[in-house]
Amino acid sequence: MSDILCEWLNREVTLSRPVDPNTLPKEFSTGYLIGELLHKYELQDDFNQFSQSRVANAKLNNFSRLEPTLQLLGVQFDQNVAQSIMTEQPGAATKLLYQMYIALEKKKKAGLTGVAMETMRPAAPAKLKYIESTLYRERLKNLTPRQTDLRLQQVSEHFEMKSKNMEAKITRVHIVEQQKVQKLQEEQRVQDLEKQRMSRRRQNEIMARIQAAIIQIPKPPPNRTLKAIEARKILKKKKEAEDMHKEIKKFEKFMRKGSPAPSSSQVSGSNIQESLKTQDLDSAAQDISEQTTTELLNTYSEDEYIRKIQKRLEEDTFAREQREKRRRKMLMEQLIAHEAQEEAYREEQLINRLMRQSQQERRIAVQLMHVRHEKEVLWQNRIFREKQYEERRLKEFQEALDREAALAKQEKIDYEEQILKEKELHRKIAAEIVEARYKKHYSMCREVINQIIDLSTKTGEYRLLTNNQIPIKLMRDWKEFFFNGKPLYAQALIEPLPTEPTAEQLVELDKMKLLDEKDYDEYKSMTGEWHPPKENSGNKPPPNNNILGYVVRRLMAIVYPPKAEPPPPVFPSFRIKGCILGKLFSGKTTCAKFLKEGCNIQILSIDTLVEEAIKTFHENEIKIETNLIPQEAEVSVKQNELSVHAQLGAASEKFLKKGKNIPDELLVNIMVEAVKQTPQKRGWIMDGFPMTINQAKLLEKALTGSDPDEAQVKDERSRKPLLVTDPTAPKDPPLPLPAFDFALLLDVSDITVLKRMADSKKSTQDQQEDSDQASDAELKEREKIDLIRDQMQYRIAGFRESWPKLEKWFSVQQNILVKVNAEIEENLLCRSVKEIILEEIFKKQNKREQLEKREAEKKQGTRTPLQPTETLTDKNKETERISQDKDPALTKSKVPKELPKKSDSFKDKKRKKDEAAKGKDAANKPGSARGKSPVPPEDLPPSTAVGPPPTKPGSDKWVYIDEPLPKEIPEFLVPYWEMVENNYVNTIKTILRHLRDERHSLIYYLADIRNNFLNYLKRPDHKQAFVSQWQADFNSTADDLWEDEETKAELHQRVTDLRDRLWDICDNRREEAEQERADFMNDGWLPDHMGTVMNHFLSLMQVEVDRFQDTKRLLHDYYRGMEGKIPTEASQEFTRIPLLDIVNVEQSGDQNKSRRIPVIPRRAPSPEINTTKPKSKGTQLKSSKDENSSENVAFSFGMDEKFIIDTWQTAVLAISNMVTAEIQSKETEEEKEHQQIEIKEREHQKSSQATGGKAAGKDAKDTRKQPPKSPTKKKGAPSPAPVVEATPVPLTPEELKKQELQHKMRREYFRALELEEEAAKSRLELIKIKAIAFVEELVRKAEETYKDMEKWLGARFLAEMSSVEKLTEVARHHIESSTKIQFEMVLEETDFFISSEVKVIPDPVPQPHPPPAETSANSALTTSQLSMLHKQFLQLAPKGI
Q1: Alpha carbons 492 and 506: distance in angstroms, whole number
Q2: Is residue 24 a contact partner of residue 89, using CB atoms and an 8 Å limit?
Q3: What is the structure's pLDDT at 466?
Q4: Would you say 1296 and 1073 are in contact if contact means Cβ atoms under 8 Å apart?
Q5: Count of CB atoms situated within 10 Å of the CB of 288
Q6: What is the pTM of this model?
């Protein structure tokens, strides 16, 4: 588009400077070139005041002057368009130039000037346009920034870039220094750690040495008395002796059992040694132990081992005594030495104390002075160290600040690089999206173009097939395929449909179903192909049978009772309800905050609500725990239960802890809970919610109670009658209002989103630098922004994927979407959003006031007394008159007589309609005499002339009978009616499909016989052989005989013979072609298919008759069920319309009777024709031509038309007979009921009046016999007066009410039959008309084809005869001129020509050319002279010497 516009501007308009597509927005951003373009077309008179400068004031001046001119052209131009062009937004200038191009071309074609266009504008719109221009200039001034602001912004941006570069350099230097300091600190720390390890190792070694050098001196045993020690030793010895005695006994037992002695001796020895080792005997008890041991051991003195043990014990005892003596002696010596040492030490200490008392006083004074000096030094050192620490802390703090600044600058640089990468990534993604969109649109356009090409080729093919006469029905079918995106050409065959059809076969099935539905709708509504012709324009679609519709609906409501829908959720009527949608950083939250402050509207953000729900859950948990600590088992259950808000928070936290997304259902529940808590006066707006189409549908269901998906499924599953409708049925409830009053979209481009994200990062960094300490909320907000920044591309892509569905939901289905350009300034955006919100609030208030007014009007209307919608005036008056009559005999005689009169009135109406429609005698109709019989004056009620006319059954004021039905009747009638509807619809679709196929087969058949006949006419012949032979004989004539007269006469005779032979060949070919045409006409295809088509239309008539019969049966059973009677058995003999027997097979009478559908044999359309090909008899050709003429076809069409009309009359008569029979059956039933009532009354009279005379009985009999005869009497015969001498039993009010109900029921039933009869007759009339038209069209096309064949045959014969005449003329010309025919004479089909490429006689040999004669000129020698001179030279000097 940009290239085309640039070419137009550069070549045709020739602006002052060339325009390039790349620089198009920049060049037109000042508005100067736009003014020049309008000046070129003589529309901008003040172009000399335009400026080429890019200053803001110049742009404002240019665009202010452009606005009136563009409005004059009709181009859409406002301040937003001007701002987008001035800011060089992509596509804005191109769009404006394209609109100007269209408008200027229109102006150019109209030849109008600017002054003419201005004068042609009306005065009122011109004044309005002037006001709009003034407002436009003011708004454009507000939107356009000042030049000083722009310059200041440029300067600030320049210095910002310069400061950024300087900060980047400083940051790098600080980072290098920081790295050096970090390295030094790391080395120092490693050294300190190594020193600590060495010092710890030395300390461990010293401690180990100290532990090893410590000598542990055992403590002396406590001083005990000798008696206690000796007693304890005695007890110990006794225990040892007892243990020894036990061991000896064990040893003896082992010895007696024969166990090996060494093992036992070892055990006992070891035990003895252990026991001996444990003995610590004193010297005073040694004798006792020796005695006991010797006494014990003497018993086993024989054992050598025992002796050794005894010896060893003695040695040990002796050694122990010696050791004890030495120890006691050493201890006594140490004690004596220690006491002496202690005594000497005490004496020495006393002397030293006495000697050191004066010196110690002097030392204490010196030490005090020294301590004071040390304290002063320590204090000075501490002050100096604190100063060093302070300097070091300041230095480290400054280094930390420098390090943080460097890191922040580096982070800025990294972030800018990241932003650039994200922009590049976004450009790639945008390019991929554009490419995908282009491919999608390309595929769609390609598919549409292919369909257009298919439609064109299909049209061309059928123009060839139908001789440029395509039927309108075919073109409609093709258009239907085209508009539904279905291929026109067949993709696969579906006749032998497999169990698993392919995709092509499914497409063909869809096409077939589409055409079936279309044809059925046209047939049902009598439109399109089934529209009545102009002469029968009054035959409109039959009216709906309201009575039948009510009956069917009631039966279906009984069998399929409607399910009660849950009530919608109740919410208060809020002041405003809406949502603000858009991409990230589009300004949703900013506008929401502005609306919250300025309009007092509750803002609902899903993120905030989820956080609050989780916080509520935690607070409730804490409260529950604190309540449970001091309480015991008396805690109530209510305290443990969480609130709804807390439960939603718990469920949300559960999903978030698992790392999953919160489901849409849970988010919607949280949002709905927040809506419930919103005050009614405030209203609410959702910030960025819903985000997907699923959330939108769930929110719609939660707020309005209507589920769109369930509504569609309900419409599909709803059981509604297909053939009739009930006007009294409750209408579908209106669609509920949408959950939102508006849905506001802040439209912003992706590039703007990325720019705003970068600006937000810079602002957050500046805030961090300004305020070092931030609150927890600010930190969370920063973390949230960082997280969003990381997910920016995914969020943009997700919005791009989900928004088309949301846009369709809010704009198409709910029509509440409002789009706002969010790329403007923040203040302007907030103001525009606020204006939209206030406008929506105002609209809602107006709607509410209108609804309140309507409700008030309705209430006022309901207070006024309303007349009843349907009053049975005649019946009520009649019943009142009968009930108030004093004579009960009148009630008895008149009530039964009214019923047949109603039925007669029905027949009378039918008779009058038949008379108006057909103009026949009314006396031939059944029941006409009864309809014309006058009503006796006694039966007429006195107040009938005063009351309103009776209400017709089925009208709007008619009250339908709603008596209870037995359970079995609806359960049987509803499936029966559904079967009738399905059979009716499917059968009609099948018949219409076969009619389409017959139409196609007719077109292809006629095209085939045309082509075959043309090919037959072009078959080869043998005329060329005779011509070639004659030419060869002609050219072989001797040269000396060409001038001979006899020879010429002979040659002329040969030419005559050749001509006669060629004419005979042409006559034979014409006779063969005529015979071929006769074969085509008599092949039987046309009669067979005509019979098939007629059978299809007769089947349609049969379907309509079957529908009437089934409907009559349904109504009959329904009303009998309400009367409490048993339905009669259905008669098996349904009315069957005969069909044509196409096969013409003779069958016996029994077989015809056994057929379900009667068949009538079809006569041949023409008598038998001799199929032998005549060759030379002209009379036979003439007769066959007469027999094969189109009159026979027209004759057969007349027979077929008559058959169709007769069949239609049969069907109409059958329907009328069925209605008459039904009425007569009702009358007979009524008479039987009257007779039964009279018999009961007579018995009652006999029992009550036994004394009555026989005359009274006879009079009663006469009166009982008289009512049945009254309907059959003539018109003038007066009805006898009823005998009232006998007083019959008066009827009770219940019986009267029952009779009135039966009477009303019969009226309603007869009216339903009447409506159904009218509908069936109108459809049968239309089928008859369309059948005759179809057959007539078929015959007409066949006649046209046969006439074309005859025309082609005659033209061919004449052309061949003319070519033979031309050949004869050429031959006679060559005979008279006595020349041979050099080139070949060709006679091909109808053309004669002489081929110049083929020569029959070779060309004669040409004569030799004379030698050229050379003449001398200007004293120059000729060639001969030179040759003679050369010969003379050779003779004179052969060697050249």
Answers
A1: 9
A2: no
A3: 82
A4: no
A5: 15
A6: 0.59
Computed on alpha carbons and rounded to an integer, the radius of gyration of the chain in Å comes to 63
Q: Which helix (H) or strand (E) holds 1395?
A: strand 1391-1399
User: Can you give the three-state secondary structure of 1303-1331, one letter per residue?
Assistant: HHHHHHHHHHHHHHHHHHHHHHHHHHHHH
- Distance, CA of 102 to CA of 108 (rounded, Å): 10
**Distance separating alpha carbons of residues 1004 and 998, to the nearest angstrom:** 10
Laid out side by side, the sheet with 577-582 consists of: 602-605, 684-687, 577-582, 742-747, 817-821
Say whether the peptide bond before residue 569 is cis (omega within 30 degrees of 0).
no
pLDDT recorded at residue 847: 83
> Using an 8 Å Cβ cutoff, are 280 and 232 in contact?
no
pLDDT at position 762 is 63
Measured N-to-C along each axis, helices 968-1017 and 1293-1377 cross at an angle, to the nearest 10 degrees, of 10
How far is 131 from 681, CA to CA, in rounded Å?
38
The answer to whether 936 and 897 are in contact (CB under 8 A) is no
Instruction: Give me the phi and psi of 430, to 5 degrees please.
Output: -65, -40
First and final C-alpha spacing in the chain? 94
Q: What 8-state DSSP symbol labels residue 9?
A: I
CA-CA distance, 591 to 1069, in Å (whole number)? 94
Mean pLDDT of 1252-1268: 42
| Closest to 1111 (Cα-Cα) out of 1083, 1143, 1134 | 1134
Mean pLDDT of 1102-1129: 84
**Which tokens is 532 given?**
């009545």
Residue type at position 1003 = I
Dmax over Cα atoms in the chain, in whole Å? 204
How many angstroms separate the CA atoms of 574 and 193, rounded?
73
d(CA 388, CA 423): 52
Angle of the 226-256 helix axis to the 286-298 helix axis, nearest 10: 10
Sequence letter at residue 1330? K
CA distance 840 to 837: 5
- As given in the structure block, the two tokens for residue 187 are 């080395």
pLDDT digits (tens, 9 = 90+) for 860-903: 655 444 343 333 333 333 333 333 433 333 333 333 333 333 33
Residue with tokens 């079957």: 1106
Burial class (CB in 10 A: 0-12, 13-18, 19+), 832: middle
Give the per-residue pLDDT at 788. Answer: 67
Is the pLDDT assigned to residue 1270 strictly greater than 80? no
**Do 290 and 277 form a contact (C-beta atoms < 8 A)?**
no
Are 747 and 819 contacting, i.e. CB atoms less than 8 angstroms apart? Answer: yes
pLDDT of residue 259: 43
d(C-alpha 1312, C-alpha 1320), whole Å: 12
CA–CA distance, 1137 with 1152 (Å, rounded to integer): 14
Sign of the Cα pseudo-torsion (1219, 1220, 1225, 1230, in order): positive
DSSP assignments along 466-505, one per residue: HTS---HHHHHHHHHHHHTT--SS--S--TT--SS--HHH
Half-sphere exposure of 1100 (CA within 13 A, CB side): 30
Residue with tokens 């620490």: 389
- In the predicted structure, residue 396 carries a pLDDT above the cut 70: yes
Cβ atoms of residues 488 and 478 within 8 Å: yes
Element (H, E) at 1139: strand 1139-1141
Whether residue 1333 has pLDDT greater than 70 = yes
Tens of pLDDT, residue by residue over 348-385, are 887 777 666 666 677 787 788 888 888 888 998 999 99
3-state class (DSSP) for residue 1169: coil
Q: Which residues pair with 577 in a beta bridge?
A: 684
Query: Using CA atoms, how far apart are residues 241 and 247, in angstroms rounded to an integer?
Result: 10
Can you count the helices (H) and strands (E) in the chain?
40, 9
Q: Tell me the sheet residues that pair with 253.
A: none
Q: What is the pLDDT of residues 784-795, one digit of tens each?
A: 666 666 677 778
